[in-house]
Amino acid sequence: MKAITYKTNGPADVMALSDRPVPTPGEGEVRVAVRVSGVNPTDWKSRQYSTPQSDQVPNQDGSGVIDAVGPGVPDARIGERVWLWEAAWGRADGTAQEYVTLPARQAVPLPEHASFDLGASLGIPALTAHRTLTVADGGPERLAPGALAGRTVLVAGGAGAVGNAAIQLARWAGATVITTVSGPEKGELAKAAGARHVVDYRAQDAAAEIRRIAPDGVNIVVEVAPAANAALDAAVVAPDAVVAFYAEDSDTVQVPARPSMLVNVRWQGVLVYTVPAVAKDHAVAAVAAAVADGAIGVGEAAGLPLHRFPLARTGDAHDAVQQSAIGKVLIDVAP
Predict the structure, then answer these.
(1) Do 154 and 136 contact (CB within 8 A), yes or no?
(2) Which of 49, 166, 175, 284 would bridge 153 by S-S if both were Cys, CB 3.0 to 4.6 A apart?
(3) Which pLDDT band, with edges at 50, 70 and 90, does 49 fall under?
């Protein structure tokens, strides 16, 4: 089978197209014929900075069809359309290959109405978004329709992959969604994702506009740039709010201490790979339910334009993500 592998860390050209044996699923595993592989920032960062222990296949997310199962997995799962999460976390086998084996729980049923493109776009972005929306005091632990009713959510960077997923999941859960963007093009994408209010922070006084929309403050902030936005977040949060940050734009963040203390704001870091297992289970179940409800989409109409590459150009796909392509970067592994 064809696979992308690398043996040392470094730039995209350390990766190469190679031939590998088709793997056999072990105990509790399934084998998936991969259709589409999704690329996330952590994929190129892992390749750039982490030394692989063996021939490493990149990419955490993907979609495809189960074509074999290992001992302990029902044969009924053969032929099932699935989306994959964390395929390469702590393992040498990511989704940039024609077949991948992984624990059965990491291959989640994908309804017929959901495309393989959508399946490959879930994983890290949607599970991260779910975690940011469920760390507030009082929960909910798992999103569902109405779970965030009466809450106001501020999504920083609503045109990004996690921001897009957060908007769609928060809207599905009944929240009022505000998002900040850096220009009209991204604003249109955030609206397409379902944000009720879009604030262009380069053209508007973001704090004043958010306070006008939500005079009592926002309950949850989904934050992509905590260092740059700390003062803004502190200015717009409601009492007992949470600022859930899932990326870093600096090694340090200067949290406005007194404003945060006065209203009991919590600053919560989120790394999806290391969240508690029960939180991961809640996230997978909720994302699967949102997909089943048709509440999550991809493509321009859903605010997440797609950028496609063939398997042989996985390096170009990684570079596109590193260069902050607007939308979702996908690799077509099989027709």
Answers:
(1) no
(2) 175
(3) very high
CA 73 – CA 316 distance, rounded (Å): 36
Largest CA distance in the chain: 60
Distance CA 330, CA 40 (A): 9
Domains of the chain, each with CATH number or no CATH: 2-122+296-332 (3.90.180.10), 129-273 (3.40.50.720)
User: What is the band of 204 on the pLDDT scale with cuts at 50, 70, 90?
Assistant: very high
C-alpha span between 332 and 62 (Å, rounded): 10
pLDDT in tens, 206-248: 999 999 999 999 999 999 999 999 999 999 999 999 999 999 8
- Quickly tell me which residue has 């959510």 as its tokens: 153
Provide DSSP, 147-172: TTTT-EEEEESTTSHHHHHHHHHHHH
List phi, psi (to 5°) of 93. Answer: -115, 100
**What whole-number distance in Å separates Cα of residue 300 and Cα of residue 28?**
37
Query: Beta strand 29-39 with 99-103: parallel, antiparallel or unpaired?
Result: antiparallel
- Residue written as token pair 């690329």: 39
Identify whether the C-beta of residue 13 lies closer than 8 Å to the C-beta of residue 48.
no
Q: What six digits make up the tokens of 214?
A: 């939500």
- Tokens coding 4: 């992308």
- Helix residue spans in the chain (DSSP H): 41-49, 116-121, 123-132, 161-172, 184-193, 206-213, 226-236, 257-262, 277-292, 314-322
Contact between 110 and 82 under an 8 Å Cβ cutoff? The reply is yes
What DSSP designation does 182 have? S
Upper half-sphere CA count for residue 314 (Cβ side, 13 Å): 30
Task: Identify the bridge partners of residue 19 per DSSP, sorted by sequence position.
Answer: 2
